[in-house]
Amino acid sequence: AASLYTDEDPLVILSSGSLRSSVTNSSSAWLLQFFSSWCGHCIQYSSTWKVLAEDVKDWQAVIAVSVLDCAQEENHEICREFGIQLFPTIKFFHAHSPETDRGTPFRGANRQVQTVRQVMVDILQNHTKLDWPDRCPRLEPYSSEDLLPRLGQRSEDYTAIVVEEPDSYVGREVILDLLMFSGVQVKRALSSERPLVEALGVTSFPSLYLLHPNSTHTEPRVEKKQRFFFSSFLKTLPGVQRKAGGRSSAAGLQEAAPGRGASESWRRFDSAKVYTADLESGLHYLLRVELASHDYLEGEELSIFKDFVTLVAKLYPGGGSVVRLMEALSDWLLSLQGRRLVYQNVLDLVDNKMRVRQCVPGGGVRWVGCQGSRAGLRGYPCSLWTLFHILTVQHAAKPTALENTGGSREAAPVLQVMRRYIRTFFGCQECGRHFEQAAAAGLDQVQNPDQQILWLWEQHNRVNSRLSGTLSDDPLFPKAPWPGPALCATCHEEKNGARWNRDNVLVFLRRHYGASNLSHRHAISPPGPAQLRPAGQEQNQEQQPDSGPGPQSGQQEAAGPGGGLWVLGLGFSATDMSLCVLLYVCSCLVLMLLFFFFKVKSKRWRRRKSPLQV
Ligand SMILES: Cc1cc2nc3c(=O)[nH]c(=O)nc-3n(C[C@H](O)[C@H](O)[C@H](O)COP(=O)(O)OP(=O)(O)OC[C@H]3O[C@@H](n4cnc5c(N)ncnc54)[C@H](O)[C@@H]3O)c2cc1C
């Protein structure tokens, strides 16, 4: 499994173990992107970040470009500590920063290569004399008095002078580009330095002047008066060469993130079913990671959290540990007095510290229908779509379920909660913005539960077509209008310009996201009583082709962790039961053998004894 960034990229991949020791007390500054490998926008942005890293790889000794994947389990805690709530978040750290430094966020809306590169220059210049990066040359302009005496002087190296306007970054960028090269020193001067400008005969800005070791000076011919052409020209001057050990490579600074890219074995699944393992894993991530990045919730955030918990408690199908947890959370949230909720208290409850028995939806994540063909694809966002589709369908099936809750007054309560959750908490910033735009444009037209189901389906399909063919599109599960003909042939029609038969789509969605289509195979926690059905009941459905790179499964339903049968609600797996039966049969056989053995023996003994008695 490959991650978004690999060791081949000219940047530093940090992990929970290396982050603090790398960015604090460092001789260089750091520019760090906290990303999440499931976040579609992070996936799109990764190509820009790599181009940036390549562009400034020679600056690494003074400012290093790096990344950290907050989606990796072992990095959750450190991302929380550094206050990361949205992805991607870019932070920079000054050189020699103290251990308490949590980084300064980069707030600019424009994150294109040139803008970020110029921000890097600003970061370097914002250092004081005390914390100046050890190997960073002077970036301030030189005056005429500094430079004029050098004209006509012999020297060992070339001196390149970039004369430019005050707001130009070219001079500083060229200085940093040549950082790792010996044989040339680059300096900059401003166009306002009239004596220098006149002495050199500069007519346009920026211009490059070269003082040769033999005391002559010239304006070299470069194709364009731009950073790239200046730097490339200087690097090819005779005697100018990369400093020994100066090959810029991430390897020197790189500390491999533990577990990065470790691949799990593939779980076979049926794309015609919906898996509780995905829902539980999604809720695990949502409660323990996404929301846990907030130290506390208050005001609007707290009310959105309460609404979300109530919604899941009331509509999650079939009871079971998820519903028990959500009910416990909901009751507890309602009983809260204060206006501010310290999130650690939620974690305590979720981690069962408050002794709410049997209500924790397992630990860790286990994607099944939401598995991606490689790390960083699908997973959490897939489970979130799935959860909300299920909730819309459940709301239509149980229209009274939300009575006496805030949602009873709204025409589309599930979508309203989803809209507010995505806008406020969903880590992928861009996704939240797009979803909010769509909701603002059309959510008020949704008047009843059926329209609610269809609105979400349509919106999801719009996102699918927008993302089709982009980097976040998993090649094994390409984004396309859904459901395809193989899943629902009657959903498709070509009549009067329409592509879908919406009535049939509605019927299909109600079935697909209905409680009876939930599979507990690979489930993390035992299903609720209402979720359990006789083992053979769904066998036929399960025998549809499995998705993904594996042969058909054809496994039975009502499967517990590891695919076992949940018997008598006691959590015995099918293997446990088979072993019991086997042991039972073996002990019966042994007892019977012993019985016959002694019976024959006693008969013989009696026969032997009887003639003597006679
Ligand atoms: C609210 C929201 C907004 C998002 N916006 C963006 C964005 O702007 N940019 C971005 O890069 N990523 C966005 N994402 C993530 C993106 O939509 C996918 O979730 C992610 O790329 C994973 O894709 P996937 O292949 O698992 O399929 P997903 O799109 O996550 O779908 C999950 C499953 O739902 C089913 N499904 C597919 N289409 C439909 C449908 N129309 N109706 C019902 N069920 C369906 C399929 O079984 C599919 O496997 C968003 C996610 C969410 C939850």
Structural commentary:
The protein has 614 residues and is an alpha/beta fold. The chain folds into three domains: 12-125, 3-Layer(aba) Sandwich (Glutaredoxin); 144-242, 3-Layer(aba) Sandwich (Glutaredoxin), CATH 3.40.30.10; 274-516, ERV/ALR sulfhydryl oxidase domain (Four Helix Bundle (Hemerythrin (Met), subunit A), Up-down Bundle), CATH 1.20.120. 40% of the residues lie in helices and 11% in strands. It contains 20 helices and 19 strands. It has helices at 19-23, 40-55, 76-81, 113-125, 144-147, 170-177, 194-200, 227-235, 250-253, 276-290, 299-315, 320-335, 343-350, 380-397, 413-424, 429-442, 449-467, 502-512, 539-542, 574-613, and strands at 12-14, 29-35, 63-69, 89-93, 104-105, 158-164, 181-182, 184-190, 207-211, 217-218, 241-242, 269-270, 274-275, 296-298, 340-342, 492-495, 498-500, 518-519, 546-547. A five-stranded mixed β-sheet has the order 1-3-2-4-5. Strands 8-6-9-10 form a four-stranded mixed β-sheet, sandwiched between helices. Helix 2 crosses helix 4 and helix 11 (299-315) packs antiparallel against helix 12 (320-335). The protein is elongated and about 130 Å long. Residues 247-262 and 534-571 have low confidence and may be disordered. The structure holds flavin-adenine dinucleotide. The site of flavin-adenine dinucleotide has 27 residues, from helix 2, helix 14, helix 16 and helix 17.
User: At CATH's second level, what is the architecture of the largest domain?
Assistant: Up-down Bundle
Tell the overall outline.
elongated
Detail the poorly predicted runs: 247-262, 534-571
Helical percentage: 40-55%
Percent in strands: 5-15%
Bound molecules: flavin-adenine dinucleotide
Distance between the termini: 87 Å
**DSSP, total strands:** 19
- Report on the biggest sheet: 5 strands, mixed
> Could you state the CATH homologous superfamily of the largest domain?
ERV/ALR sulfhydryl oxidase domain
Mean pLDDT: 85
CATH class of the largest domain: Mainly Alpha
* Overall domain count: 3
